[in-house]
Amino acid sequence: MFARAFQSSLRTPKFRLTPLAVRLLSQETKSAIEQAISSAPVVLFMKGTPQAPACGFSRATIQILGQLGVDPHKFAAYNVLEDPELRQGIKEYSEWPTIPQLYVNKDFVGGCDIVMAMSQSGELSELLESADALVPEEEEEK
Amino acid sequence: MLRMAGPIETAIRRKLTSEFSPKHLAIANDSHKHAHHAGLRGATNTTESHFRITIVSDKFAGVPLPARHRLVYKALDHELQNEGVHALQLKTKTEPEWERKQNK
């Protein structure tokens, strides 16, 4: 089933970063974030994991991505609760104050409300399809 | 029962009203639903942390959705950075968009 494949796809790379005294986006954090954003066509910064989201907004976003048929091999999730540096850094990097945050092909898409609105309007499906991030239909039928 | 708006909600209403001159503005406080969630561990503000906001304003005309949300986040930057407001659920509509939705 897709749901199981989606779960097994979870990758939560550990950021090894030196804590900073100042609350500025360091070059180190910035390049770690850029690396994370480039790690897959679809990247979600969330609270908790896809199997165990720690926040209703992260849960809703994961569910939508699953329903739209995002290919687990083209998806990476990062748990911001595991790393305070990432949690603060991604907010500054995206200039977006809340989590979850969705990136497709390194472009910031939005948070939970935007993902939800775009999935209802069909825009998200189109975006994911053009990013070649959906499970091929033939495979789904098998 | 009459619900009293807290100081943060009052400030949010004031700032959004002056920033967007909204035709319609609804603010719901959902903080109780999130008071125990992991992201709020150690937080001092758990009673005014989560708001569901609907703003109908002409200022959103021709502005893409992420940019609309950024405008709201910018207007409430102080609340998000310093007052412990943790999440905003936003509906940002122009007047024609809002009317279309009401008539459906």
Automatic annotation (TrEMBL), chain A:
Record flagged with keyword Magnesium: no
Keyword Iron on entry: yes
Coiled-coil intervals, chain numbering: none
Boundaries of every Glutaredoxin domain copy: 42-109
CC per GO annotation: mitochondrial matrix
InterPro entries linked to this entry: Glutaredoxin (IPR002109), GRX_PICOT-like (IPR033658), Monothiol_GRX-rel (IPR004480), Thioredoxin-like_sf (IPR036249)
GO molecular function terms attached to this record: 2 iron, 2 sulfur cluster binding; disulfide oxidoreductase activity; metal ion binding
Superkingdom in the source lineage: Eukaryota
Biological process terms in GO annotation: [2Fe-2S] cluster assembly
Signal peptide: none
Keywords from the UniProt entry: 2Fe-2S, Iron, Iron-sulfur, Metal-binding, Redox-active center
Protein name, UniProt field: Monothiol glutaredoxin-5, mitochondrial
Organism the protein comes from: Pichia angusta (Yeast)
Lineage of the species this protein comes from: Eukaryota, Fungi, Dikarya, Ascomycota, Saccharomycotina
From TrEMBL, chain B:
Xref: Gene3D superfamilies: BolA-like (3.30.300.90)
Pfam families to which the protein is assigned, alphabetical: BolA
InterPro entries: BolA (IPR002634), BolA-like_sf (IPR036065)
Protein family membership: Belongs to the BolA/IbaG family.
Descriptive protein name: BolA-like protein
Organism: Pichia angusta
